[in-house]
């Protein structure tokens, strides 16, 4: 199966071709089943590759598949090559597995939409580029996938492009990501000029020859991280992700759980051989990640759009992943990425089920009492909420606690407190969302209440599967302190070996501290849940008082970051462009071009008037020409 792993990204591409060109008259069910089936095949082949590699010795778990030479220019050469190792296999399973469930869910969610076939073409293309990104054996192939998912996000966020707001959201995502992508591209140039290659397997031994703290390595890491900040929506380039909710809800689930936003975390983990050599860059990664985790979590405390709450939650959880990368806990970062794919995919699809049942309503202030109307959605959504809140025994508990522990034991006490505060906020805003959406009395219109219903099986079955994974998924990384062997960490050990060994040596014999911090994190999560219950189930007057405070206004307006960007960057840029267009483009460039055009038109007009059609005139001009030539000859000869 490993030899056929190169087929994994091409199944979705085949789905794109078939649905785009050969299914124009096919029904919705045929289109949806075909698109979903292609992703299902990718998942099956990924499973086959995983089990094949699982039977191999840890040291030999790496395979490069080179299809052909893509770029050969002088000394620069970049093949179309795939790297199959434990890290890429984890991502292949997550991307194809979760995407398959989202595709199946979409068949019910998008039923009746006039753009049904176009939607599935874009969705398949999205998965193709993401698989290309995580399987690429060099930075150039990764960058192709990187840009591809950016293109697909633009197409899917602005899917309903006749709505100006949705089209604008798609453009915003595309433009903001170009900022980060510029840094990534410069990093690739710098890697090539410094090492003469962009292939991962060649770079690893070459990078190890550089001293810790090397300026070149630090520059490469910071530029790579600039790309990750854009793609994975970290401060200050996070602003595109909340607006990405303009697309269909399954698209939000795909972006947040299985594809685009996880790309930055994966890239940093893949390039761990660079980042480990740059303490300065890792510090930057940890600070940006921890700061973003808390910053986004505070905004999520007061949002009223069900999808916006989850969007800021994603920004916050990605911050946790980068915090882990910044303290050298790359395994913990990927572990949380996988767990986040389970419960965040579940939560977004659950929100889509709620919106479907509410006939498009997204404001949680107009919901309530949905528990009895939508029981499957409620219980699965609750499972995802418990998981992301860090309740013991569920997926998010194991991965988030691992990150907090690695942060504390790495000596980053301040960042540990930041992460702990963000964890408290997470538990609070998620249960605020549950209580306002599913509990109490229905607060919407009577007509909406009359139409409330559970979603079809094509939507509820994926919810149930993701709910089960959100409950039991964390046990693949059960730590030694709880009696496990951390099989997930052992699986990634060949890719992260230098880092993993360093962590084991650094943290050996600190079991009591780890257990204490685990208890603290659990108590913090329970405190957030209790506070949300006290305020929103008991109708506390505190909520009303805080709702009128300046702090609430600031959080509701998201710290006015978008407004600051608009005033400080967007508007000056637009006005500057208008001035350049008016005085330089139209005045200078157009004036020069038009002037030259007028000159040659005048010359042409003069020459044209000489063409009279009278033979005698032509003979006269020929005679004058001969005389002029003769005169010039004589002057030259006699002179």
Note down, in words, how this protein is organized:
This protein is mainly alpha-helical. Among the domains are: 278-550, no CATH class; 563-638. 73% of the residues lie in helices and 3% in strands. It is built from 26 helices and 2 strands. The chain has helices at 10-21, 28-54, 86-109, 116-135, 139-157, 164-195, 200-207, 215-231, 240-243, 249-258, 262-270, 272-275, 279-300, 306-326, 330-357, 375-389, 395-409, 413-438, 446-450, 457-472, 487-507, 511-536, 541-547, 550-556, 561-610, 615-638, and strands at 63-73, 76-84. It has a two-stranded antiparallel ribbon with strand order 1-2. Helix 2 (28-54) packs antiparallel against helix 3, helix 11 runs parallel beside helix 14 and helix 15 (330-357) runs antiparallel to helix 20 (457-472). The relative contact order is 0.07.
What helical percentage do the residues reach?
over 70%
H/E order of the elements?
A: HHEEHHHHHHHHHHHHHHHHHHHHHHHH
Taking strands numbered 1, 2, ... along the chain, how are they ordered across the largest sheet? 1-2
- Unreliable spans: 500-509
Number of helical runs?
Answer: 26
- On the 0 to 100 scale, the average pLDDT is 92
Q: Roughly how many Å apart are the termini? A: 90 Å
Number of strands: 2
Task: Show the helix and strand layout.
Elements: H1 10-21, H2 28-54, E1 63-73, E2 76-84, H3 86-109, H4 116-135, H5 139-157, H6 164-195, H7 200-207, H8 215-231, H9 240-243, H10 249-258, H11 262-270, H12 272-275, H13 279-300, H14 306-326, H15 330-357, H16 375-389, H17 395-409, H18 413-438, H19 446-450, H20 457-472, H21 487-507, H22 511-536, H23 541-547, H24 550-556, H25 561-610, H26 615-638
Antiparallel strand pairs: 1-2
Helix pairs in contact: 1-2, 1-4, 2-3, 2-4, 3-4, 3-10, 3-15, 3-20, 4-5, 5-6, 6-8, 8-11, 8-13, 10-15, 11-14, 11-15, 13-14, 13-18, 14-15, 14-17, 14-18, 15-16, 15-17, 15-20, 15-21, 16-18, 16-20, 17-18, 17-22, 18-22
């Amino acid at each position: 199966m490993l030899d056929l792993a190169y087929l994994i990204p091409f199944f979705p591409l085949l789905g794109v071709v078939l649905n785009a060109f050969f299914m124009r008259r096919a029904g919705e069910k045929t289109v949806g089943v075909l698109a979903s089936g292609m992703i299902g095949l990718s998942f099956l082949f990924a499973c086959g590759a995983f089990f094949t590699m699982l039977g191999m010795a840890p040291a030999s778990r790496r395979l490069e598949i080179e299809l052909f030479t893509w770029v050969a220019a002088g000394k620069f050469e970049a093949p179309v090559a795939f790297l199959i190792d434990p890290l890429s296999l984890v991502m292949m399973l997550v991307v194809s597995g979760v995407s398959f469930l989202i595709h199946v869910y979409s068949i019910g969610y998008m039923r009746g939409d006039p753009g049904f076939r176009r939607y599935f073409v874009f969705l398949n293309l999205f998965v193709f580029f993401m698989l290309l990104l995580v399987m690429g054996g060099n930075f150039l192939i990764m960058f192709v996938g990187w840009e591809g998912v950016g293109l697909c996000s633009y197409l899917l966020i602005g899917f309903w492009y006749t709505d100006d707001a949705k089209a604008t959201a798609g453009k915003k995502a595309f433009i903001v990501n170009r900022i980060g992508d510029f840094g990534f591209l410069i990093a690739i140039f710098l890697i090539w000029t410094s090492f003469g290659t962009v292939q991962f397997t060649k770079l690893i031994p070459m990078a190890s020859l550089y001293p810790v703290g090397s300026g070149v390595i630090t520059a490469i890491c910071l530029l790579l991280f600039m790309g990750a900040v854009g793609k994975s929506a970290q401060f200050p380039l996070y602003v595109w992700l909340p607006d990405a909710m303009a697309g269909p809800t399954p698209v939000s689930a795909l972006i947040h759980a299985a594809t685009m936003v996880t790309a930055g975390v994966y890239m940093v983990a893949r390039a761990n051989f660079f980042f480990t050599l740059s303490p300065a860059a890792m510090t930057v990664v940890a600070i940006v990640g921890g700061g973003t985790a808390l910053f986004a979590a505070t905004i999520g405390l007061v949002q009223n759009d069900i999808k916006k709450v989850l969007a800021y939650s994603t920004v916050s959880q990605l911050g946790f992943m980068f915090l882990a990368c910044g303290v050298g806990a790359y395994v913990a970062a990927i572990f949380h990425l996988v767990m986040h794919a389970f419960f965040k995919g579940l939560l977004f699809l659950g929100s889509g089920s709620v919106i479907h049942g509410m006939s498009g309503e997204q404001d949680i202030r107009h919901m309530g009492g949905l528990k009895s109307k939508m029981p499957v959605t409620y219980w699965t959504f609750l499972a995802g909420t418990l998981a992301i809140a860090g309740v013991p025994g569920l997926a998010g508990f194991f991965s988030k606690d691992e990150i907090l522990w690695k942060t504390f034991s790495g000596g980053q006490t301040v960042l540990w407190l930041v992460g702990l505060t963000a964890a408290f906020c997470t538990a609070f805003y998620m249960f605020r969302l549950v209580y306002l959406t599913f509990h109490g009395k229905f607060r919407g219109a009577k007509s909406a209440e009359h139409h409330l219903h559970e979603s079809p099986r094509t939507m509820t079955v994926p919810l149930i599967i993701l709910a089960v994974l959100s409950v039991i998924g964390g046990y693949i990384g059960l730590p030694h302190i709880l009696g496990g062997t951390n099989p997930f960490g052992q699986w990634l050990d060949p890719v992260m070996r230098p880092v993993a060994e360093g962590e084991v040596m650094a943290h050996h014999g600190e079991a009591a501290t780890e257990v204490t911090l685990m208890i603290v994190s659990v108590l913090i999560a329970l405190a957030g849940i209790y506070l949300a219950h006290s305020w929103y189930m008991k109708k506390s007057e505190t909520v009303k008082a805080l709702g009128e405070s300046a702090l609430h206004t600031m959080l509701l307006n998201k710290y006015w970051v978008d407004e600051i960007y608009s005033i400080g960057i967007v508007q000056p840029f637009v006005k500057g462009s208008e001035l350049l267009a008016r005085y330089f483009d139209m005045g200078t460039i157009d004036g020069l071009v038009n002037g030259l055009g007028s000159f040659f038109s005048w010359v042409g007009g003069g020459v044209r008037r000489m063409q009279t059609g009278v033979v005698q005139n032509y003979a006269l001009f020929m005679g004058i020409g001969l005389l002029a030539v003769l005169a010039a000859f004589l002057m030259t000869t006699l002179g």
